[in-house]
Each structure stands twice: as structure tokens, then as C-alpha cells.
Structure prediction request, 228 residues.
Amino acid sequence: MTIFKKRPNAQPIIFWGASGHAKVLYDFIGLFRYRLVALFDNDQKASSPFENVPIFHGLAGFQKWLASNPAKKLSGLVAIGGSKGAVRLEIHEFFLKHGIEPAVVIHPNAFVAENAKLGPGTQILANAAVCVEARLGRECIVNTAASVDHECELGDGVHIGPGAVLAGCVRVGRCSFIGAGAIILPRVSIGQNVIVGAGAVVTRDLPDNVLAYGNPARVQRKSNDAKS
Prediction:
């Protein structure tokens, strides 16, 4: 894990989520002059993985921390991966309600085209690529070494898993999850709340609310894991 020196002008930031995805984000957020001041998690058994960063649980824990730690400007990241797009969006709205600005973070080893558009809360991780005229909604994750090619459109809460490839002009609907190593061919449209399994090759459009996997990918059943 990268170790950051304390910076006097660092912007305080909080994470909601305290497991693996939080560790990934913590590894580079210091490069943005952020200083992680608190973690929050709904799991009452969750503990902080970071020395000197306290953890608080649920809404009650958040309200208690906020009351004793007023800040003129506070940023937040939703450190929850997987097919939990709807959860990320719910916490995003919770942040806004409490005056917390959802941060946009781009790993220094990632590529993002100058004219790509990234919605609030978006996270672009190491060795990922977001190419020309791509448009990403709120709380999207483009995970490690994933590729979002030219003119792709990702709805709010979309997660592109590690090593997944979206060819040009792909559309992915709200809260859908593209599994690790999956390939989406050019101009394919994927509906809302879809889960595409790891390693799948998607050659045709997919409707809303389904799980699809295989090569070529086929709809296997309705998806109960990703809900708007």
C-alpha cells in the first residue's frame, strides 16, 4: 500500500465502505491532496483497515461523527464495488443531502481522454482507459485495467470490472455490472440492472434485469442482485 505524508492543505475526505475497495482507493487518493479522516460502514462488525482512521457504523455513527467534526468543505467516496450500483447511488444522494461533495478520482496510471465526461463520484482505477467522447454517469467505477472505448455511454451506478473491455459506441444502462474480463462488442446496448458474468463475450443487445454469461453471452435468468 502506498504511504502518503501528511500535507497541511490536504482536503478531508470520508469513505463509505471499509473493505477491499476502500483499500484500493486509499492507495492513491493522497495524490489528489486528500486526507482520509473517517470510514463508515453499515456492517456493525467492520473494522478500519487503516491506522489512525476511525470507523463508524450506520446512520447513527455518521450523525455522531458529523456533529463532532464540522468541516467547511468535505468530500466523500463510496468505497463499494461489485453489483451494488443502486447502493452507491443511494449513498451519493445521502452525501449531497449532508453537504458532502462526491469526489471524482482517476489513478495516475489511468488514461482519460480530454473530452470524456465523468459524472460525480466516478472512480477510474489503475491502468484503466476511458477514451474519446465517452460519457459516464454518477458513481461509475472503471476498475483496474478495464477499457471503455470511444463514444461509450455508461448510466449512473455502472461498474466495469477489472480487465473488461467495452468496444466503441457501447451503451450500458443504470446500475449494470460488467464482470472481470468480459468483452462487449461494438454498438451493443446493455439494459439497466444487468449483470454480465466474468469472461463473457456479449455480441448482441441485452434487456433490463438479466444475468448473462458465456461465449457468446446468453441470458440465463432474471437478475435479483442489481436493482434500481
The first strand starts at residue 11 and ends at 16. The longest helix spans residues 85-97. The helical segments are 20-29, 58-68, 85-97. The radius of gyration is 18 Å.
